[in-house]
Amino acid sequence: MFAVSSIRELARRCGVSVATVSRVFNTPEVVSQQTRQLVLGMAAEIGYLPNESARTLATKKSNMVGLVWDTDHRRPGWRHPFLQDILVALKGALSAHGLHLLMLAPDPGAGPGDPRRFLRAVQRHNVDGVVIIDNGSRDPAVLALADAEVPCVALDLRFTGPTCTYITSDNAGGGRLAAAHLIERGHRHIATITGPAGNWPAAQRLAGFREALTEAGIPLADGDVVTGDFYLDSGHAAMTRLLERDPRPTAVFAAGDEMAVGAIKAIREAGLRVPDDVAVIGFDDIEVAALVPPGLTTVTQDKTGFGTAAAESLMAMLAGTATPPEPTTLPTTLILRGST
Fold first, then answer.
1. CA-CA-CA-CA torsion sign (269, 270, 276, 277)
2. Whose CA is closest to 284, among 195, 159, 208, 212?
3. Contact partners, residue 272, CB within 8 Å, separation at least 6
4. What is the rounded CA–CA span in Å between residue 10 and residue 63?
5. Fold for domain 64-170+304-330?
6. Domain regions of the chain by residue span
7. Cis before 275? omega within 30
């Protein structure tokens, strides 16, 4: 961080007051173009950067966006590859608008059951907006942000309020794509490994999958629907259960790629082949999907689109729109590989 004297040095070299230099960086519209060019040119020449803390005090804006990442404490949510991809896309999109991303922990002064623990963290750090990635738990501390007067954008969580909107994928459409592809390949006994109960995207994927099977006149028995948690181990355990059915399914739709990879592992351990004995299709198109043999057919989500849409929605609210932007639903597409 530059010392206070650096702004004085910049002002001295430009022959203007310190207040004028401050206005150039904080309220440039009140300074003449000639003065702005002089100050900015000299700043670049001597390597001056404005003090962000001082700028925050002057503009009442921090250029910080808080990230509330409420993954289930029982699962290593930070390591999930799809969420990591979303985080990278989000950070890049916000950076393009000059915004910094700050990961928010619950306020240390609030107890674990305090419904204000995230709101207090938002207020403590004076962030301009909030992005929410939730595990579907409907945590009251997350829901409390909907009533706060801070712009909020939720990812894959139906989140509404006076300054809130959300970004999601066409999860139901993706479920239909998966089912339609397996039906087209001639499968008639198709099972599914779903996401956790209460998770909105998982429910949408299952609904679209069921719909396509129903339209094709293909039954989905209760025993052919097994719940997972989006992680590899749950996919392995669910597939092991499905292989015990008589007759066993000839194809499986896993609502997440990690679960699909776990399912492939279980199929191989049973001495069976993918896709000859059991075809497998996933959802997300994480990096490993193209690497696991024989290559995982999957429904892909627009991870870059998540970041771009979130940043644009935040920018619109920060610009003072009367109402928050409409929720954004991103398209899903089918990626064909060897597992089907």
1. negative
2. 195
3. 243, 278
4. 23
5. Rossmann fold (3.40.50)
6. 5-59, 64-170+304-330, 171-300
7. yes
Contact present, 21 and 49 (Cβ < 8 Å): no
The helix (run of H) or strand (run of E) holding residue 182 is: helix 171-184
- The domain made up of 171-300 has a fold known as Rossmann fold (3.40.50)
The answer to whether the bond into 247 is cis (omega within 30° of 0) is yes
Contact predicate 100/65, CB 8 Å = yes
pLDDT at 252: 98
Q: Which residues lie across from 169 on neighbouring strands?
A: 330
Task: Indicate the CATH number of 5-59 among 1.10.1790.10, 3.30.70.1730, 1.10.260.40, 1.25.40.10.
Answer: 1.10.260.40
- Average pLDDT, 10 consecutive residues per value, the chain (340 residues): 60 89 80 90 78 51 78 52 82 86 78 78 84 72 81 88 92 98 97 92 97 96 94 96 96 97 97 97 94 96 91 88 89 97
Question: Is the Cβ–Cβ distance between 206 and 255 less than 8 Å?
Answer: yes
pLDDT at residue number 6: 73
In this prediction the pTM is 0.79
**Beta strand ranges found along the chain (DSSP E):** 64-70, 100-103, 129-134, 152-155, 164-169, 190-194, 225-227, 251-254, 279-284, 297-300, 328-330, 333-335
State the SS3 of 102-147: EECCCCCCCCCCCCCHHHHHHHHHCCCEEEEEECCCCCHHHHHHHH
Is there a shared CATH topology between the 5-59 domain and the 171-300 domain? no
Place of tokens 């650096």: 6
Question: What values do phi and psi take at 319, rounded to 5?
Answer: -80, -5
